[in-house]
Amino acid sequence: MTVAGVDCGTNSIRLLISRPAEGADGAAAPLADVVREMRVVRLGEGVDATGAFAEAALERTFAAVDEYARLVQRHHAGRVRFVATSASRDVSNRAGFVAGVAERLGVEPEVVSGEEEARLSFSGAVSAVDVAGLGAEDLILVVDLGGGSTEFVVGTADGTVVGAVSTDMGCVRFTERFLHSDPPSADEVAAARAAVGEILDDVAARLPLERVARVVGVAGTVTTVTAEALGLEEHDAERIHGTHLPVERFRAAAEALLAASRSQRAERGFLHPGRTDVIGAGSLIWAQLLERVAAVSGVAEAWASEHDILDGIVLSLRS
């Protein structure tokens, strides 16, 4: 059966339509992409300050849902799951958002908990990353660094989740809170780093980071920093997916993006225009958390995955 998953986050909304790979059979058959789309709609614009979706943000999101609904119909997806994450959890006008999506797509969006978001992200990331060589006691840390939140989930190579933490830390939220100058001032960066440090203290107290043997980062911030580290001239998902680099190389790339002005960032061919203003905060978060995990666990490198919560949503439709 052809299935479709939608991931609606704070900054972007994405669609994946998949069907069993040609010649494959059975419930565990690998899935092949039919359609994979992404639109930057900034649904969470201003939510941190107002507690509600802006009308313009809803209009942008509904326009993307209209487009996705046509693709779902065209490819005859038999099952559809729409997952909404950080920005949709606590807004005062969530009912209007839910009704608008249901009217257009025919399914009601699930505003999932941070823990469920983390589980789906772990499933998607681990499904596509080489975990050979890991022992039974080794843990994988999957980090889903989004616009409004960052999910940390640790589990084993066979997909068993050991623990998960969702934090109110993301590239859009931290840009709006801290990084107002272009490029960010030293004081702004220091305030952002202090806030990240406090959140990481809490994560370290709740998850066994000392047992982590591999770190996998997913979502747009991580893949963008990876593109910078690789020196890509344009976004190349095949080059980025499965790339593993030293933590120091990720840190250097993140610092370069953080220090650049928005006009300098816009000159990078791999950077989506919708991330130009927020990639500085995302880069700061990614570099700082890698340094923290490396200090605790001794892990010296990290992996980037193009497969994430969206793939996890689609995989969940097979059960």
Q: Which architecture of the largest domain would the CATH scheme give at its second level?
A: 2-Layer Sandwich
How much strand? 15-25%
Topology pattern, helix = H, strand = E = EEEHHEHEHEEEHHEHHEHHHEH
The total of helices stands at: 12
The mean pLDDT is: 91
Helix content: 40-55%
Largest β sheet strand count, sense and barrel closure: 6 strands, mixed
Structural descriptors:
globular, alpha/beta, Nucleotidyltransferase, domain 5, 11 strands, 319 residues, six-stranded mixed sheet, 12 helices, single chain
List the helices and strands and how they pair.
Layout: E1 3-8, E2 12-20, E3 31-40, H1 47-50, H2 55-74, E4 79-84, H3 94-105, E5 110-111, H4 114-126, E6 139-145, E7 150-155, E8 161-167, H5 171-177, H6 186-206, E9 212-218, H7 220-230, H8 237-240, E10 244-246, H9 247-259, H10 262-266, H11 279-297, E11 301-305, H12 309-316
Parallel strand pairs: 1-4, 4-5, 6-9, 9-11
Antiparallel strand pairs: 1-2, 2-3, 6-7, 7-8, 10-11
What does this structure look like?
By secondary structure, the protein is an alpha/beta fold. The chain has two domains: 3-111, 2-Layer Sandwich (Nucleotidyltransferase, domain 5), CATH 3.30.420; 130-309, Nucleotidyltransferase, domain 5 (2-Layer Sandwich), CATH 3.30.420. It is built from twelve helices and eleven strands. The chain has helices at residues 47-50, 55-74, 94-105, 114-126, 171-177, 186-206, 220-230, 237-240, 247-259, 262-266, 279-297, 309-316; strands spanning 3-8, 12-20, 31-40, 79-84, 110-111, 139-145, 150-155, 161-167, 212-218, 244-246, 301-305. The strands form two sheets. A six-stranded mixed sheet has the order 8-7-6-9-11-10, with helices on both faces. Helix 2 (55-74) runs parallel beside helix 3 (94-105) and helix 4 (114-126) crosses helix 12 (309-316). The mean pLDDT is 91.
